[in-house]
Amino acid sequence: MNFIITLLVNAGILLGMTYVLPTVRIKNYGTAIVVALVIGLLNTTLGWVLRVPLNVVTLGFLSFFVHLVVTAVMIKIADKLFDDFEVTGFVPALIIALVMAIVGVIIQH
After folding, report:
1. 38: which residues sit within 8 A by CB, 6+ positions away?
2. Are the beta carbons of 6 and 56 closer than 8 angstroms?
3. What pLDDT is recorded for position 107?
4. How many C-beta atoms lie closer than 10 Å to residue 43's C-beta?
5. pLDDT in tens, 53-96
6. What's the sign of the alpha-carbon dihedral 26, 73, 101, 48?
7. What global pTM score does this model have?
8. How many Cα neighbours within 13 Å face the side chain of 95?
9. Using an 8 Å Cβ cutoff, are 93 and 72 in contact?
10. Which backbone phi and psi does 58 adopt, to 5 degrees?
11. Count of alpha carbons within 13 angstroms of residue 80, beta-carbon side
12. 3-state secondary structure of 103
């Protein structure tokens, strides 16, 4: 149940960021749900493979920042996979990752 709530909230964040950031474009909420699901799956698989070595190199001291950067990379990969989802530049992807992380912490507690 928590996964579904997180998925729907992340989809809402993606859709909401289209109104805040002019460099983010998404077609509709249905597309946002699918993109959020793909970002979650990428973060769970490929993101884990990227995060582990980076956390080892930084001795875990920068794990929050590593997580943000890896999530932003997953958002950019999702940008390349979908025609109806576009994030122009890395900074907007980083901002989306930051908002997702902050809201995720709020939802978990």
Report:
1. 78, 81, 82
2. no
3. 86
4. 22
5. 988 998 888 889 999 999 999 999 999 999 999 999 999 999 99
6. positive
7. 0.91
8. 15
9. yes
10. -90, 5
11. 8
12. helix
